[in-house]
Amino acid sequence: MVHRLESLVIRHALRLPAPAGPAGEGDVAARQFDAALMSVGFKLSADALRTLSGLSESTVVRIARPALATVREMAGEHVRHNVYFKDFPANVPDTFEFWMRCVREALEDGKARSGVLAQLRNGVINLLTLPSYGTYRHTYDEMLAAHDELTAAVGDRMTVLHLGGALDDEVTALYLALAGSTTPLGDEHLADLKVLAGHCVDGPQPEAIPVRENRAVVNEARLKAGSGLLLDTVTDVLRLACALSGGDVSLQEPTRFRALSRPVRRTLLAGLDSVVEAAPAKLADVLAHREAFKRLGERLHPHEYPRWPRAAEVFAVARGEQKAYTFDARLDALLGADDVTGAAELLRSAPGRLFRALDRLLRTARTQEERDVVVAAVEQTAPQVSGRVVLSVREYLHNRAEEAGGQRVFINRLGRAHVADDTRAAVPEADRERLIGALDAEVSRRLPAPERLLVDPDILDVALPLSGRATSAGLGVLPRGSVSRVDGELLRFFVYWKQKQRVTDYDLSALLLDARYDTVSWLSYTNLREVEGEHSGDITNAPDGASEFIDLRLGAVRGTYIVPQVNIFSGEQFEEAEESFFGFMLREAEQKGRPFEARTVRMKSELRGPGRVALPLAFRRVQDGSWQAKWLHLYLKGRPAYNRVEGNQVSVATLLRAIVERERLTVGYLTGLMANGGTDVATWDAGSVPDVPVTYIGLGRPEGLHPDSVVITPENLRDLIPE
Predict the structure, then answer these.
(1) Within a 13 Å sphere around the CA of 196, how many CA atoms are in the beta-carbon half?
(2) pTM of the entire structure?
(3) Are residues 603 and 472 in contact, defined by beta-carbon separation less than 8 angstroms?
(4) Which end of the chain has fewer CB atoms surrounding its CB within 10 Å, N or C?
(5) Furthest-apart CA atoms within the chain: distance in Å
(6) What percent of the chain has pLDDT over 90?
(7) Residue 295 to residues 57, 215, 557: CA-CA distances in angstroms?
């Protein structure tokens, strides 16, 4: 368990918990540990190296082994990345010539010959039936022998592991940060919170847990420990029941409730009873999840516990045996009668709902007087709305220009996306500007006011993480909509997957588009070689894991956009596979090396979303000829099988256009508000490190900052979102 907790701290905070052990002469072991870290693109900070050097050699080794295993997994180095073409990216054949070679080899194979001849007579060859197609023809070690050592370059990634505090302190701080997050966490972070909540259940707790999914995970730990539950709605109890059954605490997917013990049933029923007793109107919340409550009632047997009659009312409402008048019904009645003023007045009592209904209210209003009532209601209730919702509406208004038309992109919590024409009436510009001004003022009021703020310019275009579900778990991953600089001559994509039960074939592809989003070319298993680069070859079965790569020479790319994608051709979905991840590397032309070199990995993200086509990010050539990455974290539904880049060109291009043309609120937006509010905002200068505490915002924690400084990096960027 200790190693798992240390791993969580390293992954989430890039901090090495302060080691405990006898003093000694561990300098040699510490330098060896540092060298091993550097081989995969990490290194120890000066403080961490100095501290380890003063410990015994055995202590350093005990710390180094699990830490090295953690960072290797973070970079994707924990698995063997073989390639179909042993010399890749050299000697990749022409696609047609390669296919013909596979046919010739099949004809020379006594077992396959008759089947291939029959296919030739029919005029159609199934590549998957050819013995030499889709499976490795050499060992991993043979592939390594065909490649020179990687030449180190200044641009290689080097992620610093800083020295942290004692393990218990680091774990507690991480727990408080995740549990108290003001934005929803991704599934991977929720799983980590579950581990931390169980460990920290008897320790310090956050002052508030505003995100309901987080509260469900914490309540699960508290129930198992016999602590009091945090409940203020009947839905909190439903989410907890989902957590206990290993289901979806966000309630987006149905949960098959498990049989619950009597003590657990009593606890849940008592919780429901207390919530309804304190606020009978909350019975109306049952209607939003009526079927789930029905199924839960079958497990809780409320009729066996007459001492909690109000809990029984919850299930009576779910079954339709008892009436519950909802807020939504009253609101729909008012809007159905075009009573915008009445609807706005009603929504003053539910500010969050007012913000979410803002566009509908403005479009329904028929007069400027009605719109003024709506805007005034927003201005007056803004202080009562969560910072995440305020920022989300502010971003929405920024993209809701007066010109009607264009396209809307819809992205659900799992990253599934689709695009539709925008047929809504325009929001009058005067009202939009007034609302933007009011929301900017509200955000400014809530932002901290440090005396001095140092900002790394590279983080200014990083999108605000208004939801943890807009970012995949991994290394070097930024929130959806972020823009980052791309430095290097060679861009290399990679995908790795390992099937769990069924034969599974993932296909890595790259679609190249021009400035009008029309297809220029692509690289895939059907087009192994192009002017821009090469594909490493098609692997069609991954019982022991498989990798595919694409090399692109950025100077040779004909087009404006590069869109890497992972298509599921057959077999297990991303969430079903034992493991699957995507990433990209950047290299200089002379570096050589193996197809996979952890030091050159700039980004590695887990593939765990719905759909059968993954779009992690896209690359765009800007006016000066340089390249930028635009982070997507999206999934297309795709077809049940046989997805290929040729078949989704139009849908990918349409989605990319909608994403590129939508502007996100960024870190630069918040730092601009802080500067306007009187904070001294300066650009970070590594050559002039202040010796007093400062607030620093950047892509990585620099060395030499005062220990009392506040540091914001992508790992804790959610802390920038005001409550």
Answers:
(1) 30
(2) 0.91
(3) no
(4) N
(5) 85
(6) 71
(7) 57, 22, 55
